[in-house]
Design goal:
371 residues; alpha+beta; Rossmann fold; OB fold (Dihydrolipoamide Acetyltransferase, E2P); six-stranded mixed β-sheet; binds adenosine-5'-triphosphate; binds magnesium ion
Length: 371
């Protein structure tokens, strides 16, 4: 494909994934992924089960060969370099500790692979144990450690040889919520202290949004969209991304016309202002979907002359900080609004007629390809 990038082009880029594919027979596990990860960046890969996250990570680490494309790490093409010569640490989806080795021996393993002397291995394994807050567990075997402790050992093993890049495949998936949140903070702190470049796979969208500098959303082996958590949350490019990250309401409607920046649509015959999502091109008159976050949906009691889409309150759910109001729209769609528990919305009761609306900037319009 393209020639090796010049020195200037690679500066600041820790990992360049260039048009990488992996096919298992007819399955395109990874299908032409191109992505650059900057030095010191924390990038998360999210996506449904089977979207190719683990396959991509295993190829970056060198445990699997791509069918096509290449990886450039620190300016060096490593596509055909064996794993222990890649300068990449990896924490696997399952901890993958050696059961017959102690914590310290597990951590020292990558150093052994790299021919580091015994004394130096011991010294660095101890430092790594300190770093993950397990200084007194050096001689325990994995079976004698809790899930969280095993995960810390796996993390120490990935860090011990001071790699340029650390890959983590759902490292916190097996932990309970509280421990997971604690480890999220610890990993983030460690990453910032070391200035490490991290590619982090998670199922948990909230984890991705809180930990990452950027998030890449994968679907069927491809990267659908990549951007800062905020950019993805507030400006999804596709229905898939809009639906995948966070809660989202979808209204079905028709495009009336595009006006300068925004557009006019009608939902159940009611005209509304909205924003075409990036890349969404639709002809006037064509069906569209409008995506609006629950916290951006405005609900008011329907009175004569109230603007908005008519609906009826189905249910109200109080969840501490806010109130979720479930509303049935005339066309059979059900939407949710998140409201302040002390606002006027809290006074509404099931069966009450309401009008639903939004600010144009909060409504993302997509061409509706579905029947
Ligand atoms: N060794 C293999 N042989 C055949 N198919 C495979 C192999 N490894 C993965 N696949 C397929 O490739 C696709 C991507 O799998 P992958 O494990 O990368 O998904 P994932 O995004 O990590 O999913 P999860 O979130 O469930 O971990 C799936 O359809 C999977 O069945
Ligand atoms: Mg996986």
């Amino acid at each position: 494909m393209s020639p090796l990038p010049t020195e200037a082009a690679t500066r600041g880029v820790a990992v360049a994934i260039e048009d990488v594919s992996k096919h298992f027979g007819p399955v395109r596990a990874v299908d032409g992924v191109t992505l650059s990860v900057r030095a010191g960046e924390f990038l998360s890969l999210v996506g449904p089960s089977g979207s190719g996250k683990t396959t991509l990570l295993m190829m970056i680490a060198g445990f699997d060969e791509p069918t096509g494309g290449r990886f450039v790490v620190g300016g060096r093409d490593i596509t055909h370099v064996p794993p222990h010569k890649r300068d990449i640490g990896m924490v696997f989806q399952k901890y993958a500790l050696f059961p017959h080795l102690t914590a310290a021996q597990n951590i020292a393993f990558p150093l052994r692979m790299r021919g580091v002397s015994r004394a130096e291995r011991d010294r660095r394994a101890r430092l790594a144990l300190d770093m993950v807050k397990l200084p007194d567990h050096a001689d325990r075997f994995p079976a004698q450690l809790s899930g969280g402790q095993q995960q810390r050992v796996a993390l120490a093993r990935a860090l011990v040889f001071d790699p340029q890049v650390i890959l983590m495949d759902e490292p916190l998936g097996a932990l309970d919520k509280k421990l997971r949140q604690q480890m999220q903070l610890e990993i983030k702190e460690l990453q910032q202290r070391l200035g490490a470049t991290v590619i982090f796979v998670t199922h948990d969208q909230e984890e991705a949004l809180t930990m990452s500098d950027r998030v890449a959303v994968m679907s069927e082996g491809r990267v659908e969209q990549v951007g800062s958590p905020r950019a993805l949350y507030e400006g999804p490019d596709s229905v898939f991304v809009a639906d995948f990250l966070g809660n989202m309401n979808f209204f079905r409607g028709r495009l009336d016309h595009a006006t300068g920046e925004g557009c006019r649509i009608s939902v159940g015959g009611i005209g509304m202002a909205a924003q075409p999502a990036a890349g969404a091109v639709a002809q006037p008159g064509s069906p569209v979907q409008v995506a609006v976050r629950p916290e951006r949906l405005m609900v008011s009691r329907e009175e004569a002359g109230t603007a908005g889409i008519p609906g009826r309150i189905r249910q109200q759910v109080f969840n501490g900080a806010s109130l979720t109001v479930v509303i049935d729209i005339a066309d059979g769609t059900t939407v949710q609004a998140a409201a302040d528990a002390r606002s006027a919305v809290a006074e509404l009761r099931p069966g009450d007629r309401v009008a639903v609306g939004w600010s144009a900037v909060d409504a993302h319009v997509f061409a509706d390809g579905l029947p």
